DNA glycosylase (Paraphaeosphaeria sporulosa), 241 residues
Amino acid sequence: MTIVNPTGEIDAPFPRHSKKRKSSGYAPSSKYAHLSPLVDILEPNLICCFVGTNPGVQTATAGHAYAHPSNHFWKLLHSSGLTDRRLPPTADRSLPARYCMGNTNIVSRPSKNAAELSKEEMVAGAGDLEAKFREFRPEAVCIVGKGIWEAIWKYKMGRAIRKEEFRYGWQDEEMNMGKVDGKEDWGGSKVFVTTSTSGLAANLKPAEKEAIWKPFGEWVQKRREERGFMPRSEEGNAQQQ
């Protein structure tokens, strides 16, 4: 059984003789019908939008993104320079006004974990993402987890991604999301793939995760400077030059 300690890090498993936690499998949406999906945090022309898997039970209950205390999302936003302080989950809806960033998920329905989602609904969710980004046109999208990118790749390419084809960081231009052809030609949102922020994702050390996130934080900071972006009040009164 894997344990998350009070600092949010993953402790080593118990010895083999201890009882193992039974991993969950697919669960229908009816199991969590009492929980509401998260509201997308989107507006036109953001610098970036984060793409998570789906709301966990605690996140859906709280009504704010990445609300589980073991999740490192808000910590990594701060350490990578995407935010100037470590924000609480309750500040999620201020991201567009304060930082020109947004948030959405590839699957909207809540579940205990990603294992309770089907591969089919993950791939279908990639199509929904394309439509969202076609409408709102963020400069870039940040895919928060390898599994999300695998589903998007399968949607776009019609096959599973090969091991040697996967990489963290910026992806090829052909993989841009939300492209528009025709009179309103638009090349789509650039794609940056980063690590999962779940406290249970222990395949990489904290320092390794920060190293993967850092280039994206630096890019967003640069784009804010180039745009002359200034935070605006959350009531919508623009302070942007």
Q: What stands out?
A: The longest strand covers residues 48-52. DSSP finds six helices and five strands in the chain. The CA atoms of residues 171 and 197 lie 20 Å apart. The radius of gyration is 18 Å.
